[in-house]
Design goal:
212 residues; two-stranded antiparallel sheet
Length: 212
């Protein structure tokens, strides 16, 4: 990281180019030099790793001997106007890279306020890796609204985010690996029954059998 005008560089493999640039920009260092070797380096013979390292020495020296770019503030959050038509909204969400293809609902101020109830919108719940995104109650409520959640789901969502941000979980490693792993949330106890979350035998298939 570039700090107090000291030149710095990010080293990694070419599988992490997008992550490196995104993380640097999130820290206010969009011009931080990113130098890569071919992926992977784990499980590779030491001689091959040394050969790859030798190939980037000149680039590293050049990056560390030039004037560092100034630190800039990350772009602030903004309110986006969205179409009322649900199909058009879905297209917008996908175009902006906000969704994964699942249907979304408009996160209108009214819907977000309803989900938050008496919670303070500016309360910070966690900071999430790798982009150091600040999860306030308002941003959590907006995301919950997009996913179709209601006020009754908010305590579970907040608890899940706090668990993700716990250093013992190591979210940074989960979010920055080339391995296809992902967090799994298991809801247990009375809240699962109150929210009518499927559980027990064949939970992932039949869902709520009373609905047919």
């Amino acid at each position: 990281m570039e700090a107090r005008g000291i030149p710095a560089v990010v080293l990694g493999t070419d599988a992490f180019v997008s992550l490196g640039r995104t993380a640097a920009a999130a820290l206010g260092l969009p011009h931080l030099p990113l130098i890569t070797v071919s992926h992977p380096i784990g499980g590779v013979a030491a001689a091959d790793v040394r050969k790859r390292a030798d190939g980037i020495v000149d680039a590293v020296v050049a990056a560390l001997t030039r004037d560092p770019a100034p630190v800039t503030a990350p772009p602030p959050a903004e309110t986006v106007s969205a179409p009322a038509d649900l199909d058009a909204l879905q297209d917008l969400v996908l175009d902006l890279g906000w969704g994964d293809g699942l249907p979304v609902l408009p996160a209108t101020p009214t819907r977000v306020t309803r989900i938050l109830g008496r919670a303070r919108p500016d309360e910070i719940v966690a900071t999430l890796a790798p982009r150091q995104g600040v999860a306030t109650m308002e941003t959590i409520g907006a995301n919950a609204a997009l996913a179709g959640a209601g006020p009754e789901h908010l305590p579970v969502i907040v608890a899940a985010i706090r668990a993700l941000a716990d250093p013992r979980f190591n979210l940074f490693a989960i979010q920055t690996t080339t391995h296809p792993c992902t967090p799994l949330l298991i809801v247990n106890g009375p809240i699962a029954r109150r929210l009518d979350i499927a559980g027990g035998p064949n939970a992932l298939d039949e869902g709520r059998p009373e609905l047919g």
